[in-house]
Automatic annotation (TrEMBL):
Pfam families tied to this protein: Tyr-DNA_phospho
Site note Interaction with DNA, residues: S515
GO MF entries: 3'-tyrosyl-DNA phosphodiesterase activity; double-stranded DNA binding; exonuclease activity; single-stranded DNA binding
Annotated positions binding substrate: K261, K492
Gene Ontology biological process: single strand break repair
Keyword terms, alphabetized: Cytoplasm, DNA damage, DNA repair, Exonuclease, Hydrolase, Nuclease, Nucleus, Phosphoprotein, Repeat
Family listed: Belongs to the tyrosyl-DNA phosphodiesterase family.
Listed PANTHER family: TYROSYL-DNA PHOSPHODIESTERASE 1
Cellular localisation: Cytoplasm; Nucleus
Protein name: Tyrosyl-DNA phosphodiesterase 1
Region Disordered: start-end pairs: 1-126
Species of provenance: Sagittarius serpentarius
Amino acid sequence: MLQEGAHGKWTVSSSDESTEENADSEKPSTSSLLDAARGRKSGPQYPCSEARKAAHKRKASPLKLSDKSSSTEIPPAGKQRTSQEGLGWCLSSSDEEPEDQEKLSHEETLKEEKCDAPKEHPLNLCKDDELSENQKAEEYNETPSEAQDTWDLLNEGNPFRFFLTKVRGIEQSYNSGALHIKDILSPLFGTLISSAQFNYCIDVGWLVRQYPQEFRKKPLLIVHGEKRESKAELLAQARPYENISFCQAKLDIAFGTHHTKMMLLLYEEGLRVVIHTSNLIAEDWHQKTQGIWLSPLYPRLPQGTTGSDGESETNFKSDLISYLLAYNSPTLKEWIDLIQEHDFSETRVYLLGSTPGRYQGSDKEKWGHLRLRKLLKEHASSIPAQESWPVVGQFSSIGSMGADGSKWLCSEFQESLVAAGSSVTTLRKCDVPIHLVYPTVNNVRQSLEGYPAGGSLPYSIQTAQKQLWLHSYFHKWSAEVSGRSHAIPHIKTYMRPSPDFQKIAWFLVTSANLSKAAWGALEKNGTQLMIRSYELGVLFLPSAF
């Protein structure tokens, strides 16, 4: 549905999500045209949300336009409504708060039973000849010269180690310096021994094919948050692969998700950590704007050194271990031990994570937006005339913010975002401008993917109608410098630029969308921070470079 107001048209919809496991409703789908041709039920062959199923349906059966209607003029949204109604191409997510979800639960029960039912067709994604034409089109082939360019780039050209993903369909020059998942898993980056993939939505067959042939049978641990039928589907996908094992992240607080996107890559030459924003499915690495932080190659420490050796000035090593310990999983003990054995001293970024729980005392500052507040107070430089330096947030999903800005966004959350330097006097938060970047309907319509791109931009109509005040902060998506204005953003970034956008006080790339579920919300008169989901990002501060 299109919501029109003083601030333009925005993508909003009704919710078809499961109230308990709706997750951060960005689970996408790849088309299964081959299955459709064989008379099977068309749909993604891995757990995904109704939003992505609807996007898949739109992609598989596009509207046929006559020659007369194929002019460059954009058709009025109202005239298209009949063909779009009911497809719900932009649905709600776990970023919704419980009170919003529970009201919908009764009417959704029948829908849930339909979409959660196990698939009837066998899951056999390991054979390349079983791929749909659409999947084949999305397979990525790298020429030797491109591989060498990537290697040169990694070693010389990017001191921040921040990359965008490659995008099909844009001018090739804009992909210079960008990475595909096959680049990351390339033998050029190391001789793989084993790997761990932390993610939200996972197409196991596709993931295996992203590894070079020689690494496809190496041990692979998949860390996920699926339950019940969705978990059964995920495990079924992996049956053909004896090298794959699983770790289920505990989600004890309702409406939480395992939203972290991280790779741990163990090589003969050392260890590498990759923190990024893409689901492990073809669509997320095809025509979307995504972000990646790629660590240096961490060498193994000499024998006889202790675990505290090889720490960086940013405390990255111990923070990563603390994050993994929060899973409370014996399966991750092996990776924690491996991290202890490697030298992380070259790391220049700070780790910023969220883990589900209710935290008090000093634990409050370990996770979520209070962790960001602590890092900025301790390590960010003071900003001259800082009330004029805006806060910019950019994300792909929006949760419930409350009846007005004072409930969360412009109170506790903004207080964390404007923190800087312990010696700086506290500003009145309302003095600092907030700019929120979120795609408009036209951004989606004119994107490389077209309307199906909306399946990864969940913002429910129920939530949107309760917080129309929020829309005055909105700015449309535009990325001319990187050639990605038509590549819908699934990346999430937060930053504090100068008024003229020539300087930056700090920059964060993360899996965390704009929601209390991801960042945490204060409870009990500010003495307790409650977080629902797992999230992970890295913070860039000038002082660390």
